[in-house]
Amino acid sequence: MQFPRIGVLGGGQLGKMLALAAGPAHLPIDLMDASEDFPAAPYAHRFVTGNFKDYDDVYNFGKTVDVLTIEIEHVNTEALHQLVKEGVTVHPSPRALDIIKDKGLQKQFYAEHGIPSSDFVLYPDADALKAAVASGERSLPFVQKSRTAGYDGRGVSVIKTAEDLEDKLLPGPCVAEDLVAIDKELAVIAARNEKGEVRTFPAVEMIFNPVANLVEFLSCPAKVSQVVEEQADQLARRVIEAYDLCGLLAVELFLTKTGEILVNEVAPRPHNSGHHTIESCYTSQYDQHLRAILNWPLGSTQAKTPAVMVNLLGAEGHTGPAYYQGLEDCLALPGVNIHLYGKVMTKPFRKMGHVTVLGDSVEAAMATARQVQDSISVIAIEGS
């Protein structure tokens, strides 16, 4: 069997884990990003230094591979459209990427397709949004999201008071969404190949850091009823079908206090909410993404064991060369699987790694995960 050459735009931790997943089958996988110091570089068959936001870099890299995919959505899609015209297989499609990487277009897409999501209004800038509040058109509280470039908690601001209007509004074109009364935040990762086969992973429950707006813990299975689990699963399938997307689609959901399930936003790639699948499911999200973009049969998404993932975030007040304090203590704990991303420099709330804890129950795994979070600190080396 002749394996196609896979190209990945982005060389961060998701690219690293994709390359590791390609290893057992020895799939040829090339990556492109700004520096060979990035986490994925040592694991690629070929690493190309380039800017995934630059047309020429993306186009020239894409011409050297058979199948092109991403680990971050903020890439130059003009080049991707041209590559598709010239016969390169690109997943996810640049058409879907153009919608997803603009949160305003994403919200309009859900409205047009009857997909449940929170009510919203688009504004050209912060001044227009402030004027809408002053006129009574928009009431407090609400959530403001930058239309583009938001990532890892950035580009989102919760506006509750008049003071927030002065201090917390984000510049540029934005979306203002109703502040939803959330009971739980869930995610379902769906996978789809060109044949139209769809598989979904079990829903996970996410707990966010209130300061950084980043996931601190996620647990699987989510503590929801079977009815909610099935509704979340069906909604994720509906969304990936609506986008006509091949590869992975992480669908982030709100379960409201009245029992509604709303789509928050999506990511068309491997996602933080699926890291636990490496150890806890028969097929990891990374294996599944490769299967999907190659149009191979999708693997079983069945969970083998309950799991909790904890993100290892850079400690507040620490910027500099990274040091992992307390790591050895956690290696002695049962069910603990440590993943360090290989980032040389730490800074506050930067994702530096994750730990997946397996257990006989979510409660047992969570207790160990909290031990891990209390034990490991990602700090900067003093005097550096």
- Please write the CATH class name of the largest domain: Alpha Beta
Main sheet specs: 9 strands, antiparallel
Number of continuous helical runs: 12
SSE class: alpha+beta
CATH architecture of the largest domain: 2-Layer Sandwich
- What is the beta-strand fraction? 25-35%
Uncertain ranges: none
Number of domains: 4
- Beta-strand segment tally: 21
Write out the CATH superfamily name of the largest domain: ATP-grasp fold, B domain
Our Rg estimate from Cα atoms comes to 21 Å
**What's the pLDDT, averaged over the residues?**
95
Question: CATH fold name of the largest domain, please?
Answer: D-amino Acid Aminotransferase, Chain A, domain 1
Terminal CA distance reads 50 Å
Instruction: Please tell me what the overall shape is.
Output: globular
Q: Report helical residue fraction.
A: 25-40%
